[in-house]
Amino acid sequence: MRRSNQILRITLLIGLYLQWQLCSAAHVEVKLKSGSALEGNLLAEKRDQLVLDVGYTVLLIPRSEIERVEKGPLERDLHSEISKADFDQTMHGSGLYLESDKELQDQSVVALSKQLGPAVVQVRTPSGLGSGFIIHPEGYLITNYHVIESETEITIEVYQEEKGALKRAAFDNTRTVALDKFADLALLKLEHEKDENTRFPYVHLARMSTIKVGQPAFAIGSPLGLERTVTEGIVSTKTREFEGRLFLQTSTQINPGNSGGPLFNRKGEVIGVTNMKLNYSEGLGFAIPVDRLKYFLNNREAYAYNHQNPSSPFRYLPAPQIMNIKRSQD
Question: What's this model's pTM, rounded to 2 decimal places?
Fold first, then answer.
């Protein structure tokens, strides 16, 4: 009886080990010198052979017969960026932004950071810096109003992928399109030479109805100037009120320099624009909800920037009228 229990225990351990190996194995495609190809999970790489699980059996492939080993379709889909064609097939436009047309699958923060990072920019002015994100391939981007308040010299640093690496590029010619001081939102545009091949990486916006309390969220930005910093947390509440306005509250770390950057869900959609945190506390960050951002974009003509009146976002109340009050005499 004791011996059979030992055998059962060993069998279970072997099964668990094999299951762990399968879960952690990379999905690859092995090109053979004969012209054939095999696809499966790479279990082990030995000096003279590869151990490949093809689903129904495990193959030992001599290295002498292998021409090359590539990432399989599943592995490529996980780590590659969404192509422009695929992106347009799954999205539909509304104004200057794109939002989900169908349910997208959750992905890891590792994969999403690689995909979405190039669309997140750093916004620099003579008085400070913040973050932003591109929402349109022609260079329209979002940031906070307080990041560029009263500034006319605005530099946008973008990170363009070139030969598999990110290359920093600075755009000094930035046009202010629309401002909403009360919502703390600004719409800018990168001015560049007209070129059909110049298309900026961009992100798309979530539907407010898909945001749930407790769901994972992460931010990409430039806290204290440390560009492309990724922090992760959850949506703590959707309806935190400050001075009559509603904000998303998140446990994602938000610091000075994150202002104007995107708050993403695990589908890679923007759910909010990060804009503040409570001083002397951690895990209490806040973002402007995506529905307020859409309202700003859909009505951008009403918030259009007036170059002849840079103070156009301010609303001046009329002076009180002076009334002559006659005192009644007894």
Answer: 0.67
